[in-house]
Amino acid sequence: MKQIAFYFFCLFFLPPVTDAWCAAAPVSDATQECLECHATIHPGIVEDWQQSRHAQVTPKAAIAVTGLARKVSSKSIPQKLQAVAVGCAECHTLRPRKHKDTVEHNGHEVHVVVSPDDCATCHTEEAGQYSKNIMAHAYNNLAGNPVYQALQLSILGRPAREKGTVQMLPSHANTKADACYYCHGTRLEVSGFESRETEMGEMKFAILSGWPNQGVGRLNLDGSKGACSACHTRHTFSIEMARKPYTCKECHVGPDVPAFKVYTSSKHGNIFSAKHARWDFQAVPWTVGRDFTAPTCAACHVSLLVNTEGDPLVKRTHQMSDRLSWRIFGLIYAHPQPKNPDTTLIRNKDGLPLATDFGGGLAESYLIDDATRKKRTASMQTICKSCHHSGWVKGHWEKYEHTIEETNAATAVATQIMADIWKRKLAQGLGQGGSPFDEAVEKKWSDIWLFYANTIRFSSAMAGGGDYGVFADGRYHLSKEIQELGDWLKWRSGSAGRETTDGK
Amino acid sequence: MKQIAFYFFCLFFLPPVTDAWCAAAPVSDATQECLECHATIHPGIVEDWQQSRHAQVTPKAAIAVTGLARKVSSKSIPQKLQAVAVGCAECHTLRPRKHKDTVEHNGHEVHVVVSPDDCATCHTEEAGQYSKNIMAHAYNNLAGNPVYQALQLSILGRPAREKGTVQMLPSHANTKADACYYCHGTRLEVSGFESRETEMGEMKFAILSGWPNQGVGRLNLDGSKGACSACHTRHTFSIEMARKPYTCKECHVGPDVPAFKVYTSSKHGNIFSAKHARWDFQAVPWTVGRDFTAPTCAACHVSLLVNTEGDPLVKRTHQMSDRLSWRIFGLIYAHPQPKNPDTTLIRNKDGLPLATDFGGGLAESYLIDDATRKKRTASMQTICKSCHHSGWVKGHWEKYEHTIEETNAATAVATQIMADIWKRKLAQGLGQGGSPFDEAVEKKWSDIWLFYANTIRFSSAMAGGGDYGVFADGRYHLSKEIQELGDWLKWRSGSAGRETTDGK
Amino acid sequence: MKQIAFYFFCLFFLPPVTDAWCAAAPVSDATQECLECHATIHPGIVEDWQQSRHAQVTPKAAIAVTGLARKVSSKSIPQKLQAVAVGCAECHTLRPRKHKDTVEHNGHEVHVVVSPDDCATCHTEEAGQYSKNIMAHAYNNLAGNPVYQALQLSILGRPAREKGTVQMLPSHANTKADACYYCHGTRLEVSGFESRETEMGEMKFAILSGWPNQGVGRLNLDGSKGACSACHTRHTFSIEMARKPYTCKECHVGPDVPAFKVYTSSKHGNIFSAKHARWDFQAVPWTVGRDFTAPTCAACHVSLLVNTEGDPLVKRTHQMSDRLSWRIFGLIYAHPQPKNPDTTLIRNKDGLPLATDFGGGLAESYLIDDATRKKRTASMQTICKSCHHSGWVKGHWEKYEHTIEETNAATAVATQIMADIWKRKLAQGLGQGGSPFDEAVEKKWSDIWLFYANTIRFSSAMAGGGDYGVFADGRYHLSKEIQELGDWLKWRSGSAGRETTDGK
User: Fold this and answer.
1) For testing the chain B interface, which of C111, C211, C244, C250 should be mutated: the one with the most B CBs within 10 Å?
2) ipTM greater than 0.90
3) Do C308 and A47 make contact, defined as CB atoms within 8 angstroms?
4) Residues B7-49: tens digit of each pLDDT
5) What is the pLDDT of residue C23?
6) What is the number of helices (H) and of strands (E) in chain B?
7) Which of A155, A480, B157, C199 places its Cα 20 to 30 Å from the Cα of B223?
8) Distance from CA of residue C278 to its chain's centroid?
9) C-chain residues within 8 Å CB-CB of B416?
10) Chain C contacts of B392, Cβ < 8 Å?
11) Record: contact A289-B43, CB cut-off 8 A
12) Which pTM value belongs to this model?
């Protein structure tokens, strides 16, 4: 009965491209051994894998596909992997000497943490592109940047009262892992090995620190960076999930990068929400209009898209800045994308590892030039033009670039006020030997560029509508907080407020 | 294979009412010409249209439908449109002399911006109702109201420091279009024409300012107001999308009008989220219980609803205030709906174009009277009563009307404090020749009525639950900010705080 | 045609477990009478019920099921209910003498409000468990706790200016019902009876106060507590809806308990959003991996789960603390779960009905002990381990418990600052004979533990990611508000700020 249901399911629900889906690929002996226990111990992940393409198609069949439909980018795949499903053993026993967490497990050398370098066995190009993606560097771009570390400490530090002020003591590793590095990725380490009694007798396990984590820039136990499972959730590792915006939401939902919230309030997001149950999220290549009628995050930033004639519009890229000219996540200003994904190398005119200085000047030599920006913009606009005429696209872009300029200008005004506050020693900034981020009034300032200017830019970039541009962490809040900052300076420096009523 | 899939799709997924759906209507020669290029150039919109009712049913067939199932309200439709699908040419070459953006394009007179007056060709009644809808007037109701303009400037202005205070310089047209007027609609204008080299040779295009925009009150190039595509997203223009709440979310998600957030947290929204995949969003008329089991925004505010006997409960209306007695979006108080959708005509007792004065008094002669309010309430309650008994409805309404009264009273207290602040010249309001909206403390005041009082009322109106009524921009925040306003006045006027510890 | 569509619907859409679904159970004469009018008057609820299991399966058939698939927990069911569908009359005429709202209605004794004690007729065990659930006591846990009442008054009170400060006058019953008690549940009362002219002639109705309400701790007219329909929405009363997270969202979406927001941003929520259209939400028992591949709220907190062999992992419980060791909703600190669901019985060392004192000390004798906590944690971890290895679960738990400790420590620092503010009489706390919750600066303090500490803990508990742990009401806001509190004390007590520039 279940089988009949599954047959009908396959017949009516799955898109034509997955003809092979319902015939599972043969499973290796090693994987069969894994499944014998783990199907019962961990039914969730085993069933998830059973539904995956990895369980249905052998690498041999996958590599035989020609043209744009090919999903496996490696030119060759090791012989012994070719004829079997990509199962437990195929990934978790790959390159055992490279993985510090490898242990002997029922006669196999097994590692827990599968890394992009393992996935590269079949998906070389994607792994290569991703290593040049700024996300792959998310751990060290935060942990290795002293300015960002000051911001991090002001947020994650342990508050303590010292001489009448609140100080931030160094934050705990567990706090970091639970907060910033949840998305940025942790540094995994093997802190030892232990033997534990299990249902199968005594077994050896690696003790991992920084675990569990699936952050985009995780430092793995084989020295590689990132986690493919951040977006291609284990153990289906599907294209479908990575193409749906819920995946991006995991890290892009707060007021600092409100991409998901803005998207779902945009016309594109509205179309997605209303219609996506009828779209094909598995088709490769992905055909505009036929497979989907409004872009998701992946459509604009990652996927290989073709028109209904099958002609490619944009190539697949896992280096997501490929179609981006601006980095609109401003810290503290929006700026052209950095040339190198390792942003700790940047130096602004004050010698700080920031793409702009506090006055808004660009650290130009570290940022992409005009020609590159134009090329990337053209690449993105190609996608827009699958549904919009040139005048539409031009008009949208004009507003967007203006909004970047406008929000940068507002940030500059806020920063000038803040600079006066520091100058008058009403707060201790860099010039006073302090952190520019940790005092109450400094957080008022960081709200402006970190939340409101960013939200306004995301709203503009994705035509995400009035609310995020105005009343939902938008211009209303930006203007309010600039006024508050100005008022704070006036009042605290004794040139406003009470005096008025005193007749001064 | 695709065709077979489509056949099964039609057979099992589409509701019975769309029997004609799978047989595409014949396409006019002109539209065929359009499609020949644009199917490849703009596959997204062409495929979207292919899936639309416009591509499937001729106006002749549509107008032949009798009774409540009829979707086309015009008594007659021009002969030449009757026998073909409503395709590219049918809309984009209609009334060419009326549209300022009309250009010669491959032998046709084509305009880019299709307007409600174009749609009125077949949908006369809906266009007529919508023109009386307050949304149709959203552009001028904002742009033509000096009080709202002061509020707008305080939000969208370019901040600049002048003599120690932050001033708001006039805002840029692109800022306006990217912010308030994204939802309200922009004023479209043809700023010129250009010739551009295209794949098809040199072609002429109109250069539009205020474009792109799909705001509900857009001023079009034929002089009409609004954009049907704001809710009936191009190029499917479906009833389905307009009936799903995601469409309303585009403009109604921020703390000023948190309708979508409140709805999805309400019992109705819960039922929608859990079950709507099995509902029929295309049926006309829309049968309570059979086609859907909980209302969406459209069900209560727009759609023609019938009971399971086919008896009408409420008529379709595109003048959405038809079922609304109150305008709960308070600026600064909630009040009965205005009589005229052009709200710039209103004058309160102080001569300002506001439905209430700052003390809360109503500009009564501009607002609907008790009899009209009762009639509209009865109309809305008819819908409630399809699922709820009279006692339920009465109890709900009692709470709702009380919440309006309560939030207006809280706003009055806040405004009295603000009036004292102005009186003591701690801020510059209207009486001091200033804007009542642009200073830091004034924004604290506007938070109260614009965000918190509104959120509380939306939560009450839709039984949207505890959170939006209490902790999510609700009464917690309203009470907090009133206390802060009171504290600000005391502290700044020298009658509180530090003195206490000084022993005064 | 409809019937054929329904047949295909049943065949392809409904899971195999519902074989009996499509054959409606016989309807009692009394229910038939109800339906004759109400199918037209209230089509929404009647159609909803038609789609319910109650309309499809007789209690006799339901009670005949053996093993884990059995949904009806009562050992016996009254004879006269056994052979008919669970229809209108079966519930609304049950135990008429027990319900104060019972009226004579067309020859039947009908009550409007069906209560858990009615449902217990067939679902004894669930009703029994729920009565021990803290939610069942939600009304009196709030209304009967003087500390919480002070907090409630500071939020729901009617603001009024008295001698220069804003006072909170007692809140109106309608305000309470529209706010806190929307979720907590109201106290229902019959305030009288009335006769009204209806389409069926004059009829008698009970007039209810506190109605409508479906809060989890509603005090019913038969003396019972709670509303099964809070989660099993009337009139399908389905397992499906209760298992989907939208139900929990109704009350758990604000910054105080942001469970839904955190969940949908977590990896689990991402999997749910992307894949749940293909899950089986009706299967009993609920099989991990086969029926669903990521937990919803219900999976972790309520449902009976089995592995793919059919072996039970956890038993069904409607006493939701059964799998919870901590109560992370801190007022003012997170603490071990209380022993008794009636939390008004608790006394901390200061004699207040709070699980902790203001210094963070636990009212230990009222809270579950270590052994119970370990047992509950083990029960929850059993679920985790269906998809995660022991090292993963251990690592997650270590971070989670650390986050509880860390947020409690931050709350302690904030409370020490607040205590200093009270001590210096800059605000009036308990020691000064005032409410600790109602002044502007006190609300700054309550933001810290009520919103930010809670949000951080929910984010950690559900691995809900970086944003809710950092920038979306997380550690950024917590650290900001602690700094503001410290700054407020310094400035208001005259030891900071302006003096600096005055050279003092």
Assistant:
1) C250
2) yes
3) yes
4) 444 444 444 333 334 458 999 999 999 999 999 999 999 999 9
5) 57
6) 25, 11
7) B157
8) 26
9) 161
10) 211-212
11) yes
12) 0.95
